[in-house]
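Task card 7
Instruction: Convert sequence to structure tokens.
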Amino acid sequence: MSNSASTADSSTDSNSTQRQGRQVAKRAFATELNDSTHVFKESDEERAPNFALLPSGEPANRYFLVGTVTEVNDVGKDSEYWQARIVDPTGTVFAYAGQYQPDAAAFLSGREPPTYVAITAKPSTYETDDGNVNVSLRPETITRVDEATRNQWVRETIDRTAARLDAFENGGEDGNGPNPYVAMSREQYGEDLSLDVYRDALNDAREDVGMDAAPVPDAGDQSNTDNQSDTQNASDSGRDTDSEHNAVVNEAAIASAVANAGLEE
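Output:
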């Protein structure tokens, strides 16, 4: 492949078309990510990837998250095993890195909180003694970023989460017929699953970056209120143009590095 072709490939977003078998990194806020407790494979092949099922009806083999590291601890017994507490506007997730994630472990061991980070990670689940299922993250890449990049990630994750919620409440129809993952979500998380908690979380995120809250629709409301509100608020928010541009550039560079990292499934 020529250098120019490689450069063109590297400019794709981390949520662009899947590249050479690598799964796309999905964006989700902590509130929904922590509820994604159902893990499955789509084939019986030995190296088939694991997927976590977002309650909004989308599978995720890996996540792209930007948040604030507020605490780092070595929780290992016989060797270093670093735990990072990462906060976004909706809640907290925990990431763990040890000997199998040496770059991430080295990064966390030298980090002095608080600091903004961008992380691409695979989800892990484990069952506690009381029968609850907890979700954590295994970092693949992690890097320090600035506040503008973090805020841009929040805005874009609002858009993508709202789109998933709207599609779910429309019965999973996406123009290509019913979404089978919506049916799977209802089966795994209950037919009476309410997405209002995630709508409320979106409003927390909107408030965090200075956007107006959107009304949480009544049950059965199939409007695109959230998407329309996001579009209008983005144009009315009065953000500094240069700062917004720099945030996009920074995040694109991070996403490019993530997309091109030679990471094993």
